[in-house]
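Hi R.,

Here's the chain you asked about this morning:
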Amino acid sequence: MALAAASTVGFCGSSQAVLQGSLQLSGSSSGRLSMSKANRTPFARPGGLAVRAQQQQSLAETETTSRRAMLGLVAAGIASGSLVQTVLAESKATLVGGPRAVSGLLKPVKIAGIPGSISQSAMSKELIRAAIRIAKTIPGLEVEYIDIDSLPLFNIDLVKNGTYPDVVQTFMDQVRATDGILFASPEYNYSVSAPLKNAIDWASMDTTVLGDKTAAIVSTGWDLGGARSQYQLRQIGIRPDVYFINKPELFINVHPTLFGDDGNITDSSIEKEFRELLISLRNFTNRLRPCSQNTATTIAT
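And here is the predicted structure, written out as tokens:
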């Protein structure tokens, strides 16, 4: 019976080394637990069959006792939560992509904030700016404004010998350097805005730009808060392999007093929901960050 199974996310670094050093699976298909060779009692030099038989019995009893003791410690650790806490704490320093741990915390999640309108007074742009301010109050999260105003209308003829227009290349490089995306999506005629769809079309030309990115949406509209556009945007993200969080969902009805003169959201309930959306995006992004060692460890009896 499997006692515990650790996938690529979780058992990393020194915790995995401890598990592999203290509890080693035997090479047979039985999956029996065996102690490391360093813990085994060596056989004595030839001294008669009786002595050898006695040593074999002693060794079997020692290994049986050791297995039970070790499994008991593991079970107690899981029950108390200490083992899980230790593994999670140590896994923070061994994630893919270089240095992650800073003062015991994960490397901050960097989010590309992409507004869906090119109007200078657009609510979508104000929402991205508000997200930048809110993110400063959320540990481990950064939001960067990504401008799409100057992107040309998608046209494959603009790609010359695999080279994109400078403004397109800059946009793609900015998005590629982030861990996830926050889309501020206005609803135009029951659908996604043309500028936002245009930006996604350009970014999807290179699979390294959007591929495996996490994403969240804050949508705006006149009646349903942009809900119809939000679900179309989720569908658009399927082809380039964008992974959207499921909850919470944030739909905001357009009204002129949503933002104060300082740019802050005036409705405290909307600001609270926006903050929860950003926290969920941060957490989801961290969950999808793989361990540096792409292996699975199973402890079985």
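One quick note: The first strand starts at residue 2 and ends at 6.

Cheers,
M.
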